[in-house]
Every structure is written in C-alpha cells, then in structure tokens.
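At this stage, I put together one protein's amino acid sequence and its backbone structure tokens, which the following lines show:
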Amino acid sequence: MRFLFLTQYFPPETGAPQVRLASLVRELSRLGHQVEIVTAFPNYPTGAIFPEFRGKLYQRDAWEGMTVHRTWVYPCMGGGLKRILNYISFTITCAWGLLRSKRADCVFVESPPLFLSIPGWIASRLWRARLIFNVADLWPDSVEQLGIMREGPALRFARALEAWSYRRANYVNAVTEKMKSILIQVKRVPAAKVLFLPNGVDTELFRPAAPDRELLQRLGLEGKKVVLYAGNHGYIAGLDSALHAAKVLESQKHLHFLFVGGGSEKPRLLALARELGLRNATFLDPVPVAELPRYMSVAAYGLVTLRKCALSEGARPAKTFVMMASGKPVILSASGEGTQMIRESGGGIVVAPGDPDKIAAAILALDENPGEAQEMGAKARRYVEQNFRWNDLIRNWLAQIDRGAESTGACNARPVTDAKAGETAPGTD
C-alpha cells in the first residue's frame, strides 16, 4: 500500500510522538509499503524553528529514503492562544505539502492537533483513499481536564470537530486499551472502525549494551550509578517528585539522576533543582533518537514518572518501552494502564505517583540488590521482545486494516504504482 502521513511532529524533532511515528513509518517501509510524510518545520520543544529551516515556506527532503514535505508553522511553547495559532497555521500550510504528494491508498492523520482531520479528509476524498485518524491524545478531553480550556464556544467547537473527525474517518486508531474503550463506549465510535496500535519499540536499535565510557567521561559521571529519565519535561510527567527523590538520596554519593529532554516545564524544573540545591542531578537537552541508545547504555536504572490525573490512567509512556528494550529495570511512578507492563514482566518496580520517598526507596532497593536488578532488566527485555516489537505490532495492525476493508467495502488495499496528479485514483482504474 501507499501511505501518506500527515503530522505536525516528526524527526529531527525529539519526543514521544516523533519517536513513535518514526518507528511506524520505518517499519512500514521495511515491510515493502511506500510512505510519504507531510509535516511542519521542526520547532519542538524549543518553540523556535530549527536554524536550517528558517526563512522558508516549504522544503522537500528525504528521511531514511522516504519523501518528506515540510511546511511553515507558527512556532511557540506552552498553551493558550499561541498554541491554537500554532495548530491552525500548519493546518493551512500543510495543503502545500499535500498538493505535492503522490496519491495514497491510506491517509494517516496524527492528532493532536485535531484540526488536521480537515485537510486529511479533503485529501482522502480527492484520492479516494482510506482515512485513518490516529488518536494519540483524547483532545479536547485532555485540555478540559487540565483546565487549559473551559466550557464555552471554543470547547463546544472542539467537541463538534472531534465528533466530525470520528464520523468522517474510515478508521479511528487507538494507542491504549483505555483509549480504545473510551472511543467505543463514550465517544460512540463503531467498534468495527476502531483500530488498535499500541506503542512498541525497535528492539534492534534499543538493546542491552556496555556502558559508553566516552559519554560517562564527558558527563563527569564515571563511577556513578545513573538513574535516567529520558523524555518530555511536560506537566503530565510530574517530574517534581523525581527531583524531590533526588534530594532524599543526596547522601548516596554514588547515585546520580540524569534528565534528558525538553518541554514546557523544564525552566521551572531547573529553578526547582537550584532551589533544592541538587548536586546529584544533571539536565541535558534533547538528543536525536539515533543517539539515545548511548544514554540508555550508561543508565543503571530507568525512571518514568506520571502525574496522578485522569489523563495518565490510560497512558503507556513510550519511554518505558525504550528502557525495557535496553535491559534496564524501570522505576515507574504512576497508576493506570502503564503499570501493567512492569507488573506482568517483573521488569521493575511500580510506586504510587507523586511520592518522592517511595521513588527513593525503590531506587535504594535496586541499588542494594544488584543481582535482582540485573534479572529485572533481563525480564524487561524479554517481555518487550515477546509483546511489543514494532514488526509484529504493525503486521497485526495492517491485518486489521485489511479485515476492515473487506467488511466495509472500503477502497482497494492493493499497492499502487507511482500515481501522480491527474492519473486515475487508486482502486478506480
């Protein structure tokens, strides 16, 4: 099949959506499908367009052999009106990339932003392609629950657009069991059109490896046991508890917390670290996905935190999969669906969200029992190999699409040749 991915977030940006989408398109390409991407100029998480893309409205380039169309976006950090402008700007400018894309069998739209369902639907109708609406975040539920958007015309419009997007899509894709349940039972999306593609991991890229000595030396962490958090420093992450846990453990000179990533909360977290006088914590900027295995190699333990709220109950943090695939025992400070993997695998310790003392106690338990910690890491690796390899997940997902096409009479699922504008649409020749 030929896939067109419409997403505001894509490498070289770093972050959970970018890593997930990169893995998805890479695996589809490996399986012989043709993939094209329309995305925004990279600007996350800094809120500024990356230097090499500035002063342009459109750029076509390649990523791992796949064509990428990048268009201008109004960059920003945080929420509010600026974030809405950020979303709307790409919703408009992405048309320039879509017009330059080849016809597709399936148009995959990443949400949020929810607005992308509109150009995605238009493209799918023009190409007579199937529209797959990927729900990575139940927006606008999330912004309502966080108090970012209150009851009023804007929220009512967002709800109406959400319902319209679900109706117009041939398939609505869920990334967690909780989200799938909400889509069917609460949002009333017909079960027959709900696909399920959970987070997975590239077990070839992320695997157990000897510590990168050069990196340890450069970071000044030789002889330390590193507690690694690698991911978004946003509100949902609830990283305050991790910093307070570092304060609890400051007398353990051989333990050091390493925070890799960026996000809207990072300036405040840096200020909190200074206020606490932390000497056992280092903050680094985001690193490209290809560099992340080096950082995984120097970690003794992986740390994942989530704030206790309704949104996190159905979350399966992508960073957890990466740490498990790297053979690291994971301390997961969260509740809800994400804890299931750690408990089932025996690959780490689950503690209540927002409790620094319990995070510290879990780290000490692993530190005092190195043999048990090593066994947990091995169990974590085996578990993701058996259950969350991207290759297996995507093969299953493609089978779901094919079954849906057969039952609904949706457009032809066979691969197409390099159709260009003006040629016969796929499945109609």
In short: The domain at 2-200+389-408 is CATH 3.40.50.2000 (Rossmann fold). Residues 80-99 form the longest helix (20 residues). The radius of gyration is 22 Å.
